[in-house]
UniProtKB/TrEMBL annotation:
Keyword Signal appears in the UniProt entry: yes
GO molecular function: hydrolase activity
Keyword 4Fe-4S: no
Coiled-coil blocks: none
Stated name of the protein: Serine hydrolase
Gene3D superfamilies (alphabetical): DD-peptidase/beta-lactamase superfamily (3.40.710.10)
Matching InterPro entries: AmpC-like, Beta-lactam-related, Beta-lactam/transpept-like
Lineage, opening ranks: Bacteria, Pseudomonadati, Pseudomonadota, Alphaproteobacteria, Sphingomonadales
Signal peptide: 1-17
Domain Beta-lactamase-related: 44-365
């Protein structure tokens, strides 16, 4: 089921808005512009066991929006002169990274951020503490064998994120979670973290538990929070980062999807992008991102029609691009998230400066691997929020 029939079916689906607030899936939508950020929809339970209602800035796992955060950290580190996103990553890793089918073709961070490096998820992408990133990348399933990096077709791959995060660590000498906090979160006064590492206890106490549509816990219940281990660890390896050496295996921080952040704070990041706030993105780097998005040829994918340097553009091309979310005919830039029954997004109109940060939970799993597109539940949430904001003059 592609996005067009999914949207057409919206009127045929039961409206969550008709349920009592405490029976609805946890959902938050914050509409923002350069000057303000307003929680428009805040409903459902953050924790069903305790009956705690979700609040506008309760931290939640935002899934692949984490890749946008990683891209911003990479660009800021490049601005510091500590690494070149267009250079061979082998320079930083200390070992030679190559597609086995193309041993002479270098791999760059820019290629990986744009999902055109040839990396793919056939070998998996979670490398626990105690296992080797280099070994994972030597597996045949980790690579597209028909074209070299840079010429490989677009293929959305989570495996690239541990590579980028490890390169950033090696180039800076900083642990990835601390690097992201220094370059992205702290300048904006945002309290966020990766895999709950570094978040304050008061923040962790407000965690949103993710549930499957069947009602079972998916992530971030009490058993998934500190003091329990919150990052992947190989069997027999103690759950501690005391001896971790930056630049060896940043997969443990789940850079592909492990950011925990509240929607008001995510909207604050969106405002920084709308205003091109030099604290988190320089005008030069934002120009590179915008130019890359504008020049990229439409991908063969019907959802990721325009994607470059860790950012996606939606609603900017007609069919066959199946990426209508807001449905207002305007182009939006940002990133989508999907994992553990959650759908999330950070999107903004770079011309009008209006955007939305949202998540909704307990969304049914896809029925087919190539189903693609936005879920009807998140389309309904976004259009309801944007409509309410417009009627309220926000």
């Amino acid at each position: 089921m592609r996005i067009a029939p999914a949207i057409a079916a919206l009127v045929m689906l039961p409206a969550c808005a008709s349920l009592p607030a405490q029976q609805r899936p946890a959902s938050v939508a914050v509409v923002f512009d350069a000057e303000s950020a307003e929680p428009i929809i805040v409903e459902g339970l953050a924790d069903r066991d305790s009956g705690r209602a979700v609040q506008a800035n309760d931290p939640v796992r935002i899934a692949s929006i984490s890749k946008l955060v990683m891209a911003l950290a990479a660009m800021k580190l490049a601005d510091e002169g500590k690494f070149d996103p267009y250079a061979d990553v082998s320079r930083y890793l200390g070992w030679k990274l190559r597609n086995p089918a193309f041993p002479d073709a270098p791999v760059t961070v820019a290629q990986i951020l744009s999902h055109r490096s040839g990396l793919r998820d056939g070998a998996g992408y979670v490398i626990p503490l105690g296992e080797s990133l280099e070994a994972k990348l030597s597996e045949p399933g980790a690579w597209y064998a028909e074209a070299p990096p840079g010429e490989a077709p677009f293929e959305y791959a989570n495996l690239g994120s541990p590579v980028v995060a490890t390169v950033l660590e090696a180039a800076s000498g900083e642990r990835y979670d601390r690097l992201v906090d220094r370059l992205v979160f702290a300048p904006l006064g945002i309290d966020a973290c990766l895999n709950w590492i570094g978040c304050e206890p008061d923040t962790i106490a407000l965690a949103v538990t993710l549930y499957r549509s069947t009602g079972e816990v998916a992530r971030d219940d009490a058993a998934d929070l500190p003091p329990n281990c919150t990052f992947p660890v190989a069997e027999g390896i103690p759950c501690t980062l005391d001896g971790y050496v930056p630049g060896t295996n940043a997969s443990i921080f789940s850079p592909q999807g492990g950011v925990r952040i509240g929607m008001l704070d995510l909207a604050r990041l969106g405002q920084a992008l709308v205003t091109v706030d030099e604290r988190v993105v320089s005008a030069r780097r934002w120009g590179q991102i915008g130019t890359s998005l504008g020049l990229v040829a439409p991908n063969e994918e019907d959802f990721f029609c325009a994607y470059a340097l860790g950012f996606q553009a939606i609603q900017m091309r007609p069919a066959p691009c199946a990426d209508a979310l807001v449905g207002d005919g305007k182009a939006y830039v940002g990133h989508a998230g999907e994992a553990y029954g959650l759908r999330s997004g950070l999107w903004f109109d770079p011309v009008g400066g209006r955007g939305i940060a949202y998540f909704t939970s307990s969304v049914p799993d896809r029925t087919a691997p190539d189903e693609g597109g936005f879920a009807p539940e998140e389309v309904r949430l976004v259009r309801r929020a944007m409509g309410k904001a417009a009627r309220a003059g926000k």
